[in-house]
Amino acid sequence: MHILYFHQHFTTPDGSGGTRSYEMARRLVEHGHQVTMVCGSFAQGKTGLGGEFQQGKRRGVVDAINVIEFDLSYSNYDSFLRRTWLFISFAMRSIVLALTLPYDLVFATSTPLTAGIPGIFARWLRRKPFVFEVRDLWPELPREMKAITNPVLLRLMDWLEWVSYRSATACIALSPGIVQGIARRGIPADRIAMIPNGCDLDIFSPQEVVEPIEGIAPDDLVAAFTGAHGRANGLDAVLDAAALLLKRQRRDIKLLFIGDGALKPGLVARAQSQDLDNCIFLAPVPKRELAAIMARADVGLMILANVPAFYYGTSPNKFFDYIASGLPVLNNYPGWLADLITMHRCGLAVPPDDPCAFADALEYLADHRHELLRMGLDGRALAEREFGRQQLADKFVHWLDAAQESWR
């Protein structure tokens, strides 16, 4: 089967973004399928292609995946208008490929929601099966975050969500809340599969520390956050806890931020103005390098803004990287991940918007190193038992095979 795979933010492990699409495409190839990946350029991503763009795109083969990359450069620093233009431009260019290239099935993954548009065209104009992967619920998330307030735009997004789900032969959801969100649109349960983000057990694993990090002493407890520094991440909560820790004279606890985003300059400026020398900021790094840095961490920070739509409607890569690395997870919002952490005793969950509880949890972990070790081992066991990338990829491949078979 030839799969036309649309993911605007595709990256290989040489980039610092999420590699789910790369890993899933590789597994499809291993199962004998042909994959053509269509993507844009991404500041933290590496598609594996080099050379100049010709007529707005470039092509090549990366690890047996055919890649078509549009010259549409996306960054977390982009304005709302530029992001909107990039999303629409990617969708329009992708429609042309969906209507002209030879393939058997279209697979599209959000975000953004507009990534599903070429699949809609393929479904209705070429009568091709279309599988839609939903990573976040739109427009629920931007509406609750007040990132989008225009009622006309919200109504258009609401309509696009409905059309995308209804046009799809099958849907893949990354969390329980996303499953429920798709089902609320009237999609039967047998057309929805939950396949969360997974653990790259061959990249992230408990390992010895290779290099020290400036500003961190050998005996310090290091709590690390990895990923985007944007509105959705609510990282001011970490700085609030950092300020409390310094007031309590707990200079043996360091907060490590690895990544980039529109709010990072403001976070760095706040840390400097408040003399929060227990906060250390590093640039984003490729996944393989990140795994080595994570070896110096003792705790992984699972932080999001206190938005109810996040509680069950997200499946963050960082959580799975943490448990694969054998790190206990400190989570600051309720939902399915907090439930997993509590059930499997692989970290601590604290209430949102409560810097005292956040600081208390860090102090507890710093003072109970034996329990820290046990939590990390339990997290790694959970990663191997339920969230190994190979295990989830096999389910992914089976779901696409079933979608194609049901179409015949």
What does this molecule look like?
Helix 7 (236-247) packs across helix 13 (355-367) and helix 11 (317-324) packs across helix 14 (369-386). With 408 residues, this protein is an alpha/beta fold. Strand 13 (329-331), helix 12 (336-344) and strand 14 (347-349) form a beta-alpha-beta unit. The model has no long low-confidence stretch (mean pLDDT 93). It has 15 helices and 14 strands. It has two domains: 2-198 and 388-407, Rossmann fold (3-Layer(aba) Sandwich), CATH 3.40.50.2000; 221-386, Rossmann fold (3-Layer(aba) Sandwich), CATH 3.40.50. The radius of gyration is 21 Å and the shape is globular. The strands form two sheets. It has an eight-stranded mixed β-sheet with strand order 3-4-2-1-5-6-7-8, with helices on both faces. The chain has a six-stranded parallel β-sheet with strand order 11-10-9-12-13-14, with helices on both faces.
Tally of extended strands?
A: 14
What helical percentage do the residues reach?
40-55%
* Level-1 CATH class name of the largest domain: Alpha Beta
Question: How do the strands line up in the largest sheet?
Answer: 3-4-2-1-5-6-7-8
Instruction: Give me the secondary-structure category.
Output: alpha/beta
Shape: globular
Q: Which residues sit in consecutive blocks of at least 5 with pLDDT less than 50?
A: none
CATH superfamily of the largest domain: Glycogen Phosphorylase B
The main sheet comes to:
8 strands, mixed
Please report the distance between the alpha carbons of the first and last residues.
13 Å
State which percent range the strand residues make up. Answer: 15-25%
The number of domains is 2
Number of helices: 15
Report the mean per-residue pLDDT as an integer.
93
